[in-house]
Structure formats: C-alpha cells, structure tokens
Automatic annotation (TrEMBL):
The keyword Transit peptide is assigned to this record: no
GO CC terms in record: cytoplasm
Assigned keywords, A-Z: Amino-acid biosynthesis, ATP-binding, Cytoplasm, Glycosyltransferase, Histidine biosynthesis, Nucleotide-binding, Transferase
Subcellular location: Cytoplasm
Predominant location category: cytoplasm
InterPro entries, per the entry: ATP_PRibTrfase_cat, ATP_PRibTrfase_HisG
Protein name, per record: ATP phosphoribosyltransferase
Enzyme class: transferase
Ranges where the ATP phosphoribosyltransferase catalytic domain occurs: 5-104
Any one GO molecular-function label of the UniProt entry: ATP binding
Organism this protein belongs to: uncultured marine thaumarchaeote SAT1000_10_G09
Catalytic activity reported: 1-(5-phospho-beta-D-ribosyl)-ATP + diphosphate = 5-phospho-alpha-D-ribose 1-diphosphate + ATP
Gene3D superfamilies: Periplasmic binding protein-like II
Reported function: Catalyzes the condensation of ATP and 5-phosphoribose 1-diphosphate to form N'-(5'-phosphoribosyl)-ATP (PR-ATP). Has a crucial role in the pathway because the rate of histidine biosynthesis seems to be controlled primarily by regulation of HisG enzymatic activity.
Length: 105
C-alpha cells in the first residue's frame, strides 16, 4: 500500500471493506487508526481521504481501472473477474447462502 495517491475501492460491502482495509498492517503503518473514507451519494464517513471506499450499485467488476483501483466483491466462480482481467489477491471471508422462510406461511 503506497501513500502517494488516493486509493479508490469500490464495494457493496462498505463496513466489511473498511474493517478489512483498516486491519491490514500496511494500512496501519501509513495511516494508523484513521478510518478509510466511505463515500455514498448520501453520506461521507471516516477521516482518511487518502483511502476511499465507494458504494457500488452493481457491475463492480467493470469499474477498474478507470473509476477505482480495487474492488471488494462476492464471487462464486471468478469468471466475470477473469473476463474483466482482474485477479483475486486476498480472501476477505467465506460465506454460505441459506433459504429462510416464515413458519406461518
């Protein structure tokens, strides 16, 4: 992680992205305990304008390199990432899907 320019990340998962980035040793080395700046159309939260996490409204994998430097997204096979010439550099978390129903219906 370099401190020379603004790092722009796109994700639907703003809190997860912020916690993950803030937990990286390289981030802590340059920025200490500052919170990455979360940017949405209706709010700006955080105090580190050098690392910005922008809310994505779909097609996140199509945003680099013009709009952002990195993305945090959910992937099952990685096919669309490969089609957009992206590669996974770290796994943030694993997830499972569940069908949940209301027992009254």
């Amino acid at each position: 992680m370099e401190k020379e320019k603004t790092l722009r990340i796109s994700s639907e998962y703003l809190t997860t992205a912020s916690k993950f980035i803030k937990g990286l040793k390289s981030y802590q080395k340059y920025y200490g305990k500052k919170d990455p700046l979360i940017v949405t159309p209706w709010m700006r939260l955080g105090n580190n304008k050098d690392v910005q996490i922008h809310l994505s409204f779909g097609a996140t994998e199509a945003k680099p390199p013009e709009d952002v430097d990195a993305i945090m997204d959910v992937t099952e096979t990685g096919t669309t990432l490969k089609q957009n010439k992206l590669k996974i550099v770290d796994e943030v978390l694993t997830s499972t899907a569940h069908l949940i129903v209301n027992k009254n219906h």
